[in-house]
Amino acid sequence: MSLSCFPSFTPTGRSRWPPLPEPGSAGGFFLLKGSFSFPLSPKCLLIGGHMIVGFFSVFIIVPDESNKIAHHTMLYHSDYLIVRRGQEFQVKIIFNRAYKPAEDKFALEFVIGSSPQFSKGTYVPVFPTRERQTTWEGRITNTSDNVVTMAITPAANCIVGKYQMYVAVVTPYGIRRTRKESSRDMYILFNPWAAEDAVFLDDETERQECVMTEMGIIYHGAYDDIAERDWNYGQFNYGILDACLYIMDRAEMPITNRGDPIKVVRVASAMLNSRDDEGVLVGNWSGDYTYGVAPTSWTGSTDILLTYNSSKMPVCYAQCWVYAAVFNTFLRCLGIPSRVVTNYYSAHDNDGNLKTDIILDENGKIDRNRTRDSIWNYHCWNECYMSRPDLPPGFGGWQVVDATPQETSDGMYRCGPASVQAIKHGQICFPFDAAFVFAEINSDVVFHSRRKDGTMEPVRVNRTHVGRLVLTKSPGDVTRRDITDQYKFAEGSTEERTVLEKAEEYGCKREKSSPPAADVDVVLPNLEISVGDNFELNVEFINKSDERRTVDAYISGSVVYYTGVASTEFLFLTPRVAIDPKTSESGVQHGNEENYMKRLVEQANLHFIVTGKIRETGQIITAMKVVTLRNPKLIVEVSGKGKVSEEMIANVEFTNPFSFNLENVYIRMEGPGMMEPKSRLITGGSSLTWTEYFTPQRAGTSRVIATLDCPALRQVHGQASVTISP
After folding, report:
1. Where does a domain end: 583, 604, 628?
2. Does residue 608 share a domain with residue 475?
3. What are phi and psi of 322, to 5 degrees?
4. Domain containing 710: what range?
5. Is residue 49 included in any domain, yes or no?
6. Confidence (pTM)
7. Which residue out of 72, 379, 425, 717 is catalytically annotated?
8. Please, which pLDDT band fits residue 547 given cuts at 50, 70 and 90?
9. Of residues 66, 265, 68, 80, the one with CA closest to residue 187
10. Of 320, 333, 415, 710, which residue is the catalytic one?
11. Same structural domain, 261 and 369
């Protein structure tokens, strides 16, 4: 398909632009950052009434530093011009003779996609005079003999992606255009600094964090034992921008949709997982990672995205924080402000049903065969910032997007964008997937007693367990930020009840019953247990009544995945506890490392649950506790002068604390602006030392992060902060 013509108009009152030939046709040439001359045609070429015999030259020089600084793209490792839409950038055009404004007619052309058309915004001519403008503005800011400096402002809603740039000149033989050459490709990104852009974020501290920061902290662990994981997003690394654009290409996303952040993030949410579209990452929660990299082993997004871009095959393996981290890289790389969010005690797979059901038998013992629902210790998703013109006013801003494949949305495994404000106010009818996210943070935990005839009765409802805490990294700092109040009103408040009633109007089903609270409480302690340690579990029963109580209790300890799914049970006790009025009784249960060590899965979570039935009243009591075992640490040390372009040394040390050797140990290390991802496989042994040399590329504060992973021990990591001077 041919390119559209320039719009018909008379730039000087004397002639009209004729139809344009295809880019790359004979006539002129173009060179980015060069000053060479090549034969154009054996014929004479007339420009602006002046005859040039034999040769004609056109060059473009892009002022790198001024454009990069103005457009906040100085950190991208790329050989090409990278700018942001809705903001002016500078280009110098060098002709082979002096430019004469009254006579010479030329334009810059920007083309994206395989079938560019003016009407679709995939072919954009930009003229040097304000009187003749298209959707992009152009103006000449300076002329000096044969050098014309031109400023171009792409539309604030233009297509985001990789463009080709041409110069077109009117001659007596028609319009001649420079040849197609990859050296003059350029990229246009979303612009959170431009007020007219849909992703505009009017907070410089947040912009620096959510667009420009490469090193992140992802929170995991348990609600009352929060852990941190360093991650190198690497959004500016060489090849990452092309890899992100390839994701949209692989999804066969129409070029014309790529200027709309709503459509971009929705497509990317599906493409970051491989469930139905051969997307970026293969999810695996089995504990067997033989044919790929264990999710706990990754240190950053770079290896994942570059591997996908080069192999064109999904990368193995991921869990929720890996999906969220790589999605964060995609969003920040394209210029959409984003952050990784962790929701503690996250309800899953309930399709907007605000109930997580736990089935007990008649005696109060949990029925694991019939209990299908689970509550994840934590779940990571993303928030991205954008306006929502498809929603009523007030529902723009932060939007939830999630690439972890849980449920289908419009036929594909994806989630969002869902307005955080809509979720908080129960407006779950708004697109996209607000009801699903609402349930993740607002579900009730309902304990049902199943009788012998199969009927079930709710015996206890916990309305505060799910969505206990929502965290993200603080902007400009390494501390955590509690954003729970952005998702929900205070538990038990009038506002919360109003929101839940609103959600019910839109179809969310809640548990209506309110079983009376038992007059005996059971309390589990906070435990800090290192991997391989023995432990003591002190279970306390508190009788709040004026009468003696007897409890038939069930104490269970299981190794669980962080998704709440039990792997194996290593502790099971059935004590009968007698408690005098207004007193308490405690019992200490001993756990030995040999009972759980060989059963551990990658995140070393132990789940203790106590249930019981009060003989005198028939009431059910329950308590749950998740304990994340503490892993040994990697010791990471960095030495050297700490100057740009001067070699430094990173040492990683690890001592095996166990009585058995660790086999097939895999270690990784990287650092933004200092060290590309490196890895090493060690066959076994009781200790290791790994030394790597690296050369910092830029000044500033950064971190070297490292992970150790093997089948017997996962989620071991360490980091060292580094300050590099110019």
Report:
1. 628
2. no
3. -70, -45
4. 635-724
5. yes
6. 0.89
7. 379
8. very high
9. 80
10. 320
11. yes
Q: What is the four-CA torsion angle of 390, 396, 398, 403, rounded to 10 degrees?
A: 0
The answer, yes or no, to whether residue 36 has pLDDT greater than 50, is no
Mean pLDDT along residues 71-80 = 94
Give the model confidence (pLDDT) of 474-524 as tens digits.
999 999 999 999 999 998 899 998 998 888 888 887 888 888 889 999 999
Task: Tell me the two tokens of residue 56.
Answer: 């004609």
Q: Residue 157 in contact with residue 259, Cβ under 8 Å? A: yes
320 in active site: yes
Catalytic residue among 303, 357, 402, 709: 402
496 annotated to a ligand binding site: yes
Nearest to 218 by CA among 207, 235, 233, 230: 230
491 is in an annotated binding site: yes
The confidence score (pLDDT) of residue 1 equals 25
606 beta partners: 559, 627
Q: Are 608 and 557 a contacting pair, CB within 8 Å?
A: yes
Residues 234 and 368 in one domain: yes
444 assigned binding-site residue: yes
Q: Which amino acid is at 499?
A: V
Instruction: Say which residue the tokens 């000087």 belong to.
Output: 12
Cβ atoms within 10 Å, residue 451: 11
Q: How far apart are CA 376 and CA 285, in angstroms?
A: 12
- Provide the CATH number for the domain around residue 561: 2.60.40.10
pLDDT above 60 for 412: yes
- Total number of domains in the chain: 4
